[in-house]
Give the backbone structure.
Amino acid sequence: MSHTFTLDGKTIPFAEGQTILQAADAAGVFIPHLCYHPDFKPHGSCKLCTVKVNGRQTASCTMRALPGMVVESETEELNDERRALTQMLFVEGNHFCPSCETSGNCRLQATAYHLGMMSPHFDHFFPSRAVDASHPDVLLDFNRCILCSLCVRASRDVDGKNVFALSGRGIKTHLIVNAKSGRLADTNFTLADKAAQVCPVGVILPKRHGFAVPIGERKYDKAPISETTEGR
Amino acid sequence: MTYNLETAQHPETLRRVAIDPVSRVEGHGKVTILLDDQNKVHQVRLHIVEFRGFEKFIQGRPYWEVPVMVQRLCGICPVSHHLAASKALDVIVGAKKLTPAAEKLRRLMHYGQMLQSHALHFFHLCSPDLLFGFDSEVTKRNIVGVALAHPETAKRGVLLRRFGQEVIRVTAGKRVHGTGAVPGGMNKSLSTAERDELLKDIYHIVQWSRDAVHLIQKVHTQDPGLYNSFGIFRSNFMSLVGHNGDLDFYHGTLRARDDNGKLIFDHVDYQQYHQYIEEEVRPWSYMKFPFFKSLGKEHGWYKVGPLARVQNCNQISTPFAEHERKEFVDYAGGSPLHAPLAYHWTRMIEMLHAAEVIKELLHDDDLLSKDLMVEGERQMEGVGVIEAPRGTLFHHYQVDENDVVTMANLIVSTTNNNQAMNEAIRHVARRYLNGREVTEGLLNHIEVAIRAFDPCLSCATHALGKMPLAVELVDVEGQVVHALSRA
């Protein structure tokens, strides 16, 4: 038997065990998110998918849907908070869209456009982070990491390699490579790994690919993020 | 070739006049003039006061990012940097010869840029000086004044530029700062619809370009006393020349001539440019001073850009532009014309050539081909050279085994013209300012000389800005005694 809840007044059906985000996705309703991926267990860390359930805020990627829930998502208050979170991600890293090869295919950039982010608003941290170009096929550009942990989960849960981890705490949290040298070349990572396919921004990049896809044919050139299939 | 007026003997005893910033040029620069009590000129310098640092901060970046990143040096002719970098990286990825489609698409992009940049410079930046006079009413000496007095000319300027920008958009994906060229080729070709849209307009673009040549030719030849002598200095000159010595903006070998037109070097493979050209740093400018090694610092400086190119080539491959080149060479009387204001005439001949080449390319079905990429044996070092609107542009990179850039050297077009622009303004200062009360109109003469070179001061220091003019007269105690502003 199918249950339903309401999302911004619209009736959303769900199967038992589905989260609010999963049910919304299945119904074709977009809730902004960065760290959620349908192939992995929810992580609940980016908080962009925060909604109000019966008046209280919660992450829609971790909250199980229940019959009769009243969920709010597209409100000015929630979108203001989502925009502020996105702005903080931009200033904490070095996100130079004009020369980034992921521009047009980047979830962070597409989310910023969706939320109408017109400026970074906060002062940039301009952290100093070197790229790891040691691997023959893959470049790691830590400047663009948003700590979604998708590569950590993919490498551990799908590839069985544990190549990546998040280290440090709080504002000092950063992505590391699980090798004594800290270099990707000294791991058994390959371009075929699931972890090489899941980065929503421009950290894990196939080498020598660059700007092969012309402007106009990139993922978010064709449709805004709210209208694309979310199964990446 | 003289350093006269570069450095005054006793600057502490002189008054300083500064044109800061220089207006209607790309980027930010200033001119300082040192005068004594009788307004006699002792020192004139064009200073480039911004520092960009691109050569440094692309170190440590993956090489395939470079053509897209370095074009941010400039908002006027980013395509030049985009293509020069791509050509250097073609060498790095072992792409010795591009596919016909890729080469023609890059050429189309570049000639579109040449058209839009030359149109912008002539109609928007310089036509006010040329149509109204150098010391005409300052409030009318601008593109709005031109639009009111000569609406058809102003409209054509806008539409010529727009067409060039459209050529860039269909080849690079965006009008400004696109991504079309990649190491080893191109990431897109033209659709039939894109090509047909450009074909609709190209014939009147060619005609308007012919009219523009005739307009500047008339202005120049009607007042030879001014146009043949204003800011004049003699110098060596250099450019790329293509197959058979043709005028070629995209590819070729380096050729240099002395002030009499005698060859200094020819058929030089630009991968070896550092054996022929060296750069000198002087403490009063962020822009370096390049010179031919064989002639040394004092005599080896040179000019680049339209006046150099049109007189350096053997011929132009397109009929209308070749006819205009011959007219120009006949006017020059068999030896090189060195008058800075002749840059405008040659620039319009080049714009006409660009329009004609675009027309030819648009009739070539290779533009629709999907055969766009080649690769070969990976190299560690590559040089890319292109004739940008303002002159010869060098990009030189070294890349390590991990694909990361370890060294970059850029010699941009305006840098090549550094000494030449300084010589031109010194001549104007001697001829027009010496012993006179300084006025805005007289100072504009200095700017007219600089503008003739179409300098891109932002590129030259590896900024972008619109510049009001501020001039201050400062006495030896540093007190401002007179100030003029065009804010």
About this structure: Chain B has a mean pLDDT of 89. DSSP finds 16 helices and 16 strands in chain B. Chain B touches chain A at residues 60-62, 64-65, 67-69, 72, 93, 172-174, 177-180, 182-183, 187-188, 402-404 (CB under 8 Å).
